[in-house]
Amino acid sequence: AREVDSKTIAVWVGHPNLSIFDNSTDFETKVSRIVNAAANLVGLPTNAKRFTKYLLMCEPKLEDFPAEVDYRVFEVEKVYLLNSIDAKMDSNEKKPNKEYSFVRKRSQGQSSIYGQTTVTYDSSTREEIEVKRIIATRQEYNTICQMRDTDRHVLVQTRISFLWKKQSFAIHTYRQPVDNVCILYAQVNSNHDNERGDSTPPLPEFLQVERKLTNSEEDRKLGSYFISLKNEK
After folding, report:
1. Rounded to an integer, what is the distance from CA 82 to the centroid of its chain?
2. Residue 120 near residue 99, CB atoms below 8 Å
3. Which DSSP state fits 90?
4. Which residues pair with 14 in a beta bridge?
5. Partners of residue 53 on adjacent β-strands
6. pLDDT tens digits, one per residue of 15-50
7. If DSSP codes are grouped into helix, strand and coil, which group holds residue 180?
8. 216-222 long-range contacts, CB within 8 A, separation 24+
9. What share of the chain has pLDDT > 90, as a percent?
10. 87 within 8 A of 118, measured Cβ to Cβ
11. Quick one: pLDDT at residue 163?
12. Residue 113 CB-half CA count within 13 A
């Protein structure tokens, strides 16, 4: 049964919506995790934290990955839309106080999938709420991209998705407009979750992790929202 389970998980490595729900928590907590994940998939607002993020010292080499680690490599294009220009920064909150949107193309070889994400900042809870939808065709994606915010760069990333010790990870390496930022995303769905939803999962030894990223102003500048700004220093 364990072998079948491992093979089943391996088949889904690289899927953008892969989530692993283990039995490390009580039943009610597990159900809550599944409900939050399902809400995100169907486009319902959710502020459930899915990943913790870590800054890597350098881009990892695929040949350094252990032979038993299943991974997939994707190229990603991320385009912020014109309405994101209204997401002005509040000097006190240091957060976008209005919603913004972006579209994303995720490619592997000759195949691509497309999606749109709208993010709203709830000032009462100090949380970001995401709503996602699937873009069905390349034509629709190209049409939406005509409404892009020209005050922002088009972001290009290489992403490596992989499983390690039944934990889902993704590495986002920026190619444009910067080429020196590499972020590790670790799925928050394990027995390391605490009451506040924070998580410190075991990290792969074959990666050079510099530090965990927080919600500080400095660390937020390592996110796509800030990196895309043309006038951001």
Report:
1. 21
2. yes
3. P
4. none
5. 185
6. 666 666 666 665 655 666 666 667 666 655 554 556
7. coil
8. 217/94, 219/55, 220/94, 222/55, 222/181, 222/183
9. 47
10. no
11. 86
12. 9
- Integer-rounded Cα Rg, in Å, for the chain is 18
Length of the chain: 233
Rounded Cα–Cα distance for residues 90 and 113 (Å): 34
Structural contact between residues 157 and 76, judged by C-beta atoms closer than 8 angstroms: yes
**pTM metric for this prediction:** 0.72
Q: How many helices (H) and strands (E) does the chain have?
A: 5, 9
The single-letter code of the amino acid at 132 is: K
Strand partners, 169: 162, 186
For residue range 61-92, what is the model confidence (pLDDT) as tens digits? 999 999 988 899 999 999 999 874 444 444 44
Distance of alpha carbon 206 from alpha carbon 10, whole angstroms: 19
- CB within 8 A of 215, min separation 6: which ones? none
User: H or E stretch including 143?
Assistant: helix 138-145
The answer to whether 80 and 227 have CB atoms below 8 angstroms apart is no
Rounded CA gap, 182 and 59, in Å?
6
Residues 6+ apart with CB under 8 A from 99: 83, 86, 87, 118, 119, 120, 121
Residue 163: C-alpha distances to residues 53, 71, 170 (Å)? 16, 7, 9
Structure-block tokens of residue 144: 């939406």
Q: Which residue has the tokens 């490595």?
A: 13
CA 7 to chain centroid, in Å, comes to: 24
Q: What angle do CA 96, 178, 72 make, to 5 degrees?
A: 95
Question: How far is it, in rounded angstroms, from Cα 16 to Cα 199?
Answer: 21
